[in-house]
Every structure is written in structure tokens, then in C-alpha cells.
Amino acid sequence: MTTSHTNGAPVANGFAHPVAQKIAELDASKVVVNLTQNLKTVPPVEDLVFGQTTSDHMVMVSYNPITGWGTPEIKPYGPISLDPSCSVFQYSTSVFEGMKAYVGPDGTPRLFRPEMNMARMKRSVARIALPAFDTAELLKLIKKLVAIEARWIPNVKGHSLYLRPTIIGTRPSIGVHASDHAILYVICCPTGPYFRTGPKPVSLYAVGEQVRSWPGGTGEFKLSLNYAPTFYPAQLAAEKGYDQCLWLLGQDQHVTEAGAMNFFAVVKRDDGDLDVMTPPLDGTILPGLTRASVIALVSAHPNDILLPHLPPAQKLHVHERLITMADLFAWSDAGTLAEIFLVGTAAVVAAVGRVGFEARELEAPRHEGGLGPVAKALFDRLTDIQEGKFEFQGWCVPIDA
Ligand SMILES: *Cc1c(COP(=O)(O)O)cnc(C)c1O
């Protein structure tokens, strides 16, 4: 039997390293709530800029390979202290989610399809070998945090509390390995409408040289490492006078996404119906839950639910298919391109006004008030569901205080 000596005292090997100990799972019922003594002043809604104001509290829980998931805490929002060598700084072991808490006219906070965010987070975490956790427990912690932060959800149409669940690898070593230490946390930012001046159409610059994602890559996961490489092309697009990049891929220059939103085109058919098209989930596309919700709502119209403002006789056909730049120009030249719009949690639905591509410029049809009829119908229906004014398939989950 070997012994080691600490401060001169013999320590039996195996005694100092209790290998038989069971690793703890994430358990929301153990949460310790430590409320701040200094509540912040909630800024007036008209002063809110996306992502710039954080609420009073955050969820935080750590994982280490010996004991597993620790005691979850809800505690005052504040800095985290980390070893400079740790995994997230060196190897970008970081996953995030973007979701919102809404409050409707009845004052009850709600989440929109949160189990989809949890399922996606689980897949992202697995992709970069961060420690797994029970996402149902994380959702309980998120609900508890939202209930505590309810005064931060502006009770004004189009406003919400943006939630940013995050997990980072905190293994303190520059060795190139999976991180077996992690911190999971959730922060909240009150937000107003993404486009404060109303739904102003965005302009896109089509980029094929720097790609956002590629077959076999990580584009379908919400990994932080997917975003940093998009900032430089976005800067070039901004210098050319465009709001965001349209991310192309392949010899055929097909569209994947734009900015950090999913892409849709609406095209008129000979029979008067409309084709609503979006690229298929082939591994290069982030599977947005707004995208999935748009597909479900368009598929349900007009038989199961009527989308607002659209004529009941207007038939819509969803297609998940490749869309090339050549397709977009061909539809535009033929006069059948009706709308281009982008979807995602932050802006919900945003109209696209023009697309710059090499030396050419594609003008999407302009619509009174910014959004075209299909985009407008989807925006109104989605925001009504989110604020609890319209019930659809249990998408909206109320939070009991
Ligand atoms: C988050 C995100 C989206 C939108 O996803 P939602 O779940 O609808 O918010 C689309 N594309 C990218 C690249 C994203 O990161």
C-alpha cells in the first residue's frame, strides 16, 4: 500500500480520492436563492437597446468531474472569476441559447416552446463534449428565475425579457482536451422591438467567400465558435452599406441563412397560390424554433387556423428546398418574387428589402408598413401566441409565480 505525505501526516491512497462517490445530477429542487440588496432601476422601455441592460439576478451552477453538478444558485447578477488558462478562453467551449419570456395583458409571464431550446442546447453541449445535464432541470431553474425577475418583463406589446442560458468549459488547463469542468448560467436582458422605428426592411450582402457553415461542420449547433468568424464579413458588408450578410454556400451559391436568422422566400404560382420556401435542415442550417413555428403555421393555413389579414382562399405551400442566388434573380426577373423575410427569436420576423450580390442588386418587392402580407400575418400571429392572446398547440407555457 502506498502512502503520500501532506504536512507530514500519512494519507492512505484511496482515502483522499473517494472514487466510489456518485456524481450528482443537476437538481433544480436544491436551488439556493440569494436576492440582491440593491435592486436596479428598470429603465423606461423606450431606452432599451437589445442586449445592453441586464436584470438583477442570474442562475449559476458549476460542474466538476469529482462531485458532478453542484448546488444551483439564483444570485445577484455579477462578474465570474475564471482561471486564465481555462478551456472556454483557449478553445471556445461555449454554448448558448436565446429565448424570451413574455407577459400578456393578463400579467402572467410565459415562455415560447422552451423545450425546443432545451433540446437544442442538449445537442450543442454534446457536440463539443461539455458535461451533459438534465435540461428539464435547467428549465425549472429558468422558470424560477423568470418568476423572480417578472418586474423586468415590460408589459408593453412587442417587449419581452430575453434569456441567455450559457454553458462554458472551465477546465483550468491549456491541454487540448474536452472540458470536464463547466459553469452553466442564465442571464436576462429586457428588450423592446428589434426594429424600434417599426419593421424597416433590412438589406443583405451575399457572401460566398467566407462561409458561415459547411457540410459536416457545426452550423446546426448554437456554439459560440460559429459567431466570431461572421463579424469580419459583417463589417465588410456594413462598409458597403448593408445591414447583414446573406450566407451562401457551394458552387451553386445556395442560400443558408442571413445574419443569425433563418431565411424565407415567398413566390407566386401560376394558380394564384403562394410557395413559401426555406432551405432544408441539411446540417448547415441552425434549426430555429421560429423557423419550425413558421413552417407549422403556414402549413396549418387555411384549414386548421387562419393566418390574420390573409384572404381565407389564399393557399400557401411550404417547401424546404435549396434556394440559389440564380433562383432569386430568376423569380425577381419573372415578377413572381413576392417577399423575402428572416425569422428568429430576437426580431421574430424581419422583411428583406434588397440583396447585393457581386455587382448586382436584387430589389425585393416593397410593402406598405415594411412587412409583406405573409411576413406580417406570421409576425402578428406569432407575437399573439407569445403574449398569450392566441392559443396554438400549447406553444405558450405560463409560469406560475
Ligand atoms: C439562434 C439562431 C437562429 C434563430 O433561431 P431561433 O430559435 O428561431 O431563435 C437562426 N440562425 C442562427 C445562426 C442562430 O444562431
From TrEMBL:
InterPro entries, sorted: Aminotrans_IV, Aminotrans_IV_CS, Aminotransferase-like, B_amino_transII, BCAT-like_C, BCAT-like_N, BCAT_family
Keyword list, A-Z: Amino-acid biosynthesis, Aminotransferase, Branched-chain amino acid biosynthesis, Pyridoxal phosphate, Transferase
GO molecular function, one term: L-leucine-2-oxoglutarate transaminase activity
Top-rank taxon, per record: Eukaryota
GO cellular component, one term: mitochondrion
Pfam families the UniProt entry points to: Aminotran_4 (PF01063)
Cofactor needs: pyridoxal 5'-phosphate
EC number(s) from the headed UniProt entry: 2.6.1.42
Catalysed transformations (reactions): L-leucine + 2-oxoglutarate = 4-methyl-2-oxopentanoate + L-glutamate; L-isoleucine + 2-oxoglutarate = (S)-3-methyl-2-oxopentanoate + L-glutamate; L-valine + 2-oxoglutarate = 3-methyl-2-oxobutanoate + L-glutamate
Gene3D superfamilies: 3.30.470.10, D-amino Acid Aminotransferase, subunit A, domain 2
EC class name: transferase
N6-(pyridoxal phosphate)lysine found at: K222
GO biological process: L-leucine biosynthetic process; L-valine biosynthetic process
Family per record: Belongs to the class-IV pyridoxal-phosphate-dependent aminotransferase family.
Protein name from the UniProt record: Branched-chain-amino-acid aminotransferase
Species of origin: Antrodiella citrinella
